[in-house]
Amino acid sequence: MADVNREYKDRLFKFIFGNPANKAWTLSLYNAIRGSAYTDPEAISFNTIEDAVYMGMKNDVSFIISSDMELWEHQSTFNPNMPMRFLLYSGDLYDKYIKSSSYYEYSSLIQNIPAPRCVCFYNGMRDEPESSVLRLSDAYEGDGDIEVLVTMLNINYGKNKALMEACRPLREYAWFIDRVRTLQKDKNDLGAAVYTAIDQMPDDYMIKPFLLDNRSEVMKMVLTEYDQEKTIEKAVDEGRREGRNEGRKEGLKEGRDERNVEVATELLQDGNHTVSFISRISRLPESAIRKLADKLHVTAL
Question: SS3 sequence, 144-210?
Fold first, then answer.
């Protein structure tokens, strides 16, 4: 595999659907999900968290349209802890919204806010339903008063056909990822597979000119994403072995260490999160986070 540029943080999904230059594609996907028929791409106002100012977080795509605040995340590895991430993202996004609007929190009248809509687009290798709902309450140790619902949509090629038919750019994106995987098996060279998949994409595909114009960036994104998938799998396996061999010295409850390692690994690979933040989200001690960062050869902020 070619060297992976770990400093390149954007993902291909975000590059396509979270790009202000491609608002028409974002609107097409929004309409397909919500069953709406908006026609003006300028109705979309992106508010994606782009840097580490907000608690060291960086989300994929978020925007406001009409009375909705859409929060979109793309995952190539199944993560049952997405509701917690959406909870944290939404808090920062609403904070930004309040500061830039006429919202007055001490008013005696209800202050209307855009409704949050949380969607996780999944295109990993693990077999998942075409549509499912992840709930924050499933992680509670007892009863709780806050609920977050995340709709997870399987966007692997051949899945969710109605959604794909309603959004051409999404169908073309799914085809591209599927073609890369097929070519990778044949060529055993991911870089060559990405390069060839762009050339083999049908000429009438809407996203092909965009991918051709940004071929080098696209290759970096896909290489990084595939490398992260393998790294997460390796880290989880190591976590299982260490948990057995060391008798779970960190005192983690049985059955939860694997999920915590997965979360910590993904956040470390993102490269925009502090050790204290990752510790808080993954519930691993900071010492374990730094040890995991060393194994992954990434910098712990």
Answer: CCCCCEEEEEECCCCCCHHHHHHCHHHHHHHHHHHHHHHHHHHHCCHHHHHHHHHHHCCCCCCCHHH
